[in-house]
Amino acid sequence: MSRKVHESVGEAIADIGDGASLAVGGFGLCGIPDQLIAALEERGVTDLEVFSNNCGVDDFGLGILLGAGRIRRVTASYVGENKEFARQYLSGELEVELTPQGTLAERLRAGGVGIPGFYTPAGVGTPVSEGGLPWRYAPDGTIAVASPPKETREFDGVEYVLERAIRPDFALVHAALGDTDGNLVFNKAALNFNSLAAMAGATTIVQVERLVEAGSIDPGSVHLPGIFVQRIVQTGPQTKRIEKRTVREVQA
Questions:
Q1: pLDDT, tens only, 42-71
Q2: Which run of H or of E encompasses 89?
Q3: Residue 39 CB partners (closer than 8 Å, separation 6+)
Q4: What is the DSSP code (8-state) at residue 82?
């Protein structure tokens, strides 16, 4: 068996300690590494810094860690359907860096390919580049920690802002299929932030629904090569949740 393969989620995340930084894949509740997150909550790991598009919902995904008070800082593009996220942020219990979604994606990708930073037009002329966004509130509602101004530069008459790459200690990822060398295939839209988080993490841990032997996956079908993956664990079919259920009335 490959040294990358672990027998349980608990074994795979055993060395994630208090204060660790994590890139977490998924978008809403699509393709989130739910079992890896649950194992972290069970171990009692705390004081975490999380980079993720959003923070799940109150009772599922990263919302479990958030509700237990295990996360100290989040870099995200979207609060989502998580009331506890909003409550902790506005009460000053949680530090939050909101960033444009495309910028977050590129910051993760840059971390994965060894680029320390990049210039983008997104956010120029706004508090994203000029600073002053509330990262943390004080209990009385004033801003306790504000975002600093960022370096800007002009290229061909257009102004751009410098964004730094994200390179967290660990990445938690979900894939539909993986082989024992860590090559991954994602299911349709579940590709989302999973591939980017996997690239960025110094140690990338993947839960896969189905695990096969190395060489079993057509190379042309691989979405993410195993060079980015350090640990993999088979968890079986994923629980499917709907982030916000909307229905229409039956027409008479």
A1: 999 999 999 999 998 888 999 999 999 999
A2: helix 83-91
A3: 9, 10, 12, 13
A4: -
C-alpha to C-alpha distances, 197 to 32, 108, 205, 248, nearest whole angstrom:
11, 6, 10, 36
Tokens of 239: 């629980």
CA 233 – CA 172 distance, rounded (Å)? 11
- How many Å from the N-terminal Cα to the C-terminal Cα in the chain? 60
The 8 Å CB, 24+ separation contacts for 114-117 are 115/165, 116/164, 116/165, 117/162, 117/163, 117/164, 117/165
- For residue 79, give every residue at least 6 positions away whose Cβ sits within 8 Å of its Cβ, in sequence order, or none: 54, 55, 85, 86, 89
Q: What is the pTM of this model?
A: 0.94
Out of 3.40.50.720, 3.40.50.970, 3.40.1080.10, 1.10.10.10, the CATH code matching 9-116+166-234 is 3.40.1080.10
Residue 47: other Cβ atoms inside 10 A: 13
- Measured CA to CA, the distance from residue 150 to residue 147 in angstroms comes to 9
CATH 3.40.1080.10 in the chain: give the residue spans.
Answer: 9-116+166-234
- Alpha carbon of residue 203 to chain centroid: 14
Q: Where are the beta strands (DSSP E) in the chain?
A: 21-24, 48-51, 71-76, 95-98, 117-120, 134-137, 143-146, 152-155, 158-164, 170-179, 184-185, 203-212, 231-234
Q: What tens digit of pLDDT does each residue of 149-200 get?
A: 999 999 999 999 999 999 999 999 999 999 999 999 999 999 999 999 999 9
The DSSP output letter for 218 is: -
